[in-house]
Amino acid sequence: MRTILTLFCLSFLTVALLAQGQVDFEGRPALRLSNGKLELTVFPEGGAMAELVFVGQKDRFSPIWNPSRLAREAGLAPPTSFSRGHFVCVDGFGPVSAEERAVGLPMHGEAQALPWNLDSYQQQSGTTSATFSVKLPLAQEILTRTYRVVQGENIVWVNSELENLLSFDRPVFWGEHATIGAPFLEPGKVAVDMPVQRAKTKAYQMEGVTTNRQLPSFVDFSWPMAPTRDGGRLDLRSAPLKPGSLEHSTSLLDTSRQLGFVTALNTERKLLIGWVFRREEFPWVQTWLSYPAENRMVRGLEFATQPFDLPRADVLKAGPLFDTPVFRMLPARSRIAASFLMFYTQVPEGFGKVDDVRLENGTLIIEDRTAARTIRLAASRSLVP
């Protein structure tokens, strides 16, 4: 009898907690996590992080890409595809082959296209967490992902595991499609920083289409100044004053670092969003620029196992780039893990560039060395195993 009563109490508590976190976001069911400073909205469909705002912010101004909001504010029809915010691309990052398409494999892998199971939602000891899982029937993998926010922090912690259900080792293609958009992304007012070692533009022939993009095909360059086809230079760090471009490049992060990072700073609003991750898990950051108009600007800050979003066969055929692997191995009947954090904060007057981001002794340290400005954010967890 006591066991039955305990199970009943636990079930009642779970339902009560879920009722606190469930919301409707852009006409779809979502789960909201809050820690007194930040509110994170997550879609159970595909597990996308769809909105990140400060608690009490009336206009719910979020730096994360919201295609529904962009369409609404631009006076356009709502998007027909369910694209959104920061979503995970696994197993597969980019288009699929004709054979894969024929059996139903979607672009960017199955995980972002399937409903996820909510395994737990907890609020305890100052931490709110939600754990989801999804089985990928075509890839024969299981992805488990936990989102955590800790009381008083400006950080979202994300931990994932990918399980191989097959009896052989296999290459895995995994991208974190972190994406910012208007109205946060404004012409001439947003700067992106990351510790780049080498960079390269995407090869047009890899996409199988011709294009009138500004950047030449498959050339090395020194970040952030990429060469243009007309002999000029394009500053990939800045959001251009004149939208109308569509570009794609990749950056190999500094191989001497244990943790990589990529940040986006709105210098006028003094708002900074960033991601920190284990460089050995995600050595590449893909820069995807989609700037059709001022109020529809979107930028991908996509940290990944591979340098470009391509069909897996093309990634394997191309092989390593800059002597760096382009996939992770997932052993037979085993699991691999990946962790990252996302932070969102206001910056002090004069802060204009991110030179370094690091975790030290329970603190996330963000430095602008030129302006001699340092931001210190409480960080209760670690990304280092």
CATH class category name: Mainly Beta
Number of domains: 1
Residue runs with pLDDT of under 50 for 5 or more positions: 1-19
- Residue-averaged pLDDT: 91
**How far apart are the termini?**
42 Å
The class by helix and strand makeup works out as: mainly beta
The whole-angstrom Rg is 21 Å
Helix proportion range = 10-25%
Approximately what portion of the residues adopt beta-strand conformation? 35-45%
Question: What overall form do the CA principal axes indicate?
Answer: globular
Task: Report the major sheet.
Answer: 8 strands, antiparallel
CATH topology: Beta-galactosidase, Chain A, domain 5
Number of strands: 27
CATH architecture: Distorted Sandwich
The total of helices stands at 5
Summarize the structure.
The protein has 385 residues and is mainly beta. The chain is built from 5 helices and 27 strands. It is globular, with a radius of gyration of 21 Å.
Please tell me about this protein's structure.
- This protein is mainly beta.
- Helices cover 11% and strands 42% of the residues.
- It has helices at 2-21, 67-73, 98-102, 204-207, 312-318, and strands at 22-25, 28-34, 38-42, 49-54, 87-89, 117-124, 127-136, 141-150, 155-164, 170-172, 175-177, 179-181, 190-193, 196-201, 220-221, 225-227, 233-235, 245-253, 259-266, 271-278, 284-291, 298-304, 328-330, 335-346, 356-360, 363-368, 373-378.
- Strands 5, 11, 12, 14, 15, 18, 21 and 22 form an eight-stranded antiparallel sheet that branches.
- The longest helix has 20 residues, at 2-21.
- The chain is globular and about 55 Å long.
- The protein starts with a helix and ends in a 7-residue tail after the last strand.
